[in-house]
TrEMBL record:
<feature type="domain" description="DUF306">
    <location>
        <begin position="34"/>
        <end position="115"/>
    </location>
</feature>
<dbReference type="InterPro" id="IPR038670">
    <property type="entry name" value="HslJ-like_sf"/>
</dbReference>
<dbReference type="InterPro" id="IPR053147">
    <property type="entry name" value="Hsp_HslJ-like"/>
</dbReference>
<dbReference type="Pfam" id="PF03724">
    <property type="entry name" value="META"/>
</dbReference>
<feature type="domain" description="DUF4377">
    <location>
        <begin position="132"/>
        <end position="205"/>
    </location>
</feature>
<feature type="signal peptide">
    <location>
        <begin position="1"/>
        <end position="19"/>
    </location>
</feature>
<protein>
    <submittedName>
        <fullName>DUF4377 domain-containing protein</fullName>
    </submittedName>
</protein>
<dbReference type="InterPro" id="IPR005184">
    <property type="entry name" value="DUF306_Meta_HslJ"/>
</dbReference>
<dbReference type="Pfam" id="PF14302">
    <property type="entry name" value="DUF4377"/>
</dbReference>
<keyword id="KW-0732">Signal</keyword>
<dbReference type="InterPro" id="IPR025485">
    <property type="entry name" value="DUF4377"/>
</dbReference>
């Protein structure tokens, strides 16, 4: 085998390795609201959450498997169901699971469990805002009668109708939320639609509303 052939084969192997890592680079999510599972990988660093604490640390793809180093974590106490989801996520990430991207989804699979996540909306270039959102929508009228989210930027302000949706977020009745969102301008919006697009970045806090 000639030296040029060896160089060519090495280049092909390097390109194949890069290609195997490319699909996971980015942000992924499953579910919505307080219990949403999120995962991102960028420049060899992983960040993940099952709706409670944020896990983060080094990670890479080797031979189609996600290999995660020691993960650091925030130390919040959350409802038991969220803590159970978090423990399951930790076990999955520690198991060197198989990982595959297909049709806008990311599949992470071990012998014990499978996690399927959707590609998250890009948050690049958006304006960061913090808002409060009521867990229940209220009747409102745009071009036709509909239901509107109730939002405000300060707890001292009255609730206001928001005629759009917050991408990646579904409120649950009986809870109020404080969210960190990304706001994007919409060119030529319809008459009954907002001029801004809101995408959930993080659920900062949620509280149960007393009856």
């Amino acid at each position: 085998m000639t030296r040029h052939t060896l160089i060519a084969l090495s280049a092909v192997a390097a390109l194949s390795a890069c290609a195997s890592q490319a699909p996971l680079s980015g942000q992924w999510q499953a579910g919505s609201g307080e219990g949403k599972t999120t995962l991102s990988l960028k420049e060899g660093m992983l960040a993940a959450s099952a709706g409670c604490n944020r896990l983060f640390g080094p990670a890479e793809i080797k031979d189609g498997r996600l290999v995660v180093g020691n993960l650091a974590s925030t130390m919040m106490m959350c409802p038991p169901e969220l803590m159970q989801k978090e423990e399951a996520l930790k076990k999955l990430l520690a198991s060197k699971p198989q990982v595959e991207a297909q049709a806008g989804k990311l599949v992470i699979k071990s012998a014990a469990q499978t996690l399927v996540l959707d590609a998250a909306p890009s948050l690049e270039g958006g304006k960061t805002r913090f808002i409060y959102v009521m867990g229940e929508t209220k009747p409102c009228v745009g071009v036709a009668p509909t239901q509107c989210l109730q939002v405000r930027e300060d707890k001292a302000q009255p609730w206001q109708n928001y005629y759009g949706q917050i991408e990646g977020f579904t409120p649950e009745a009986g809870n109020n939320y404080r969210l960190r969102i990304k706001e994007f301008d919409i060119a030529n919006p319809p008459a009954d639609a907002p001029s801004k697009r809101w995408v959930l970045d993080m659920v900062v806090e949620s509280e149960v509303v007393k009856p």
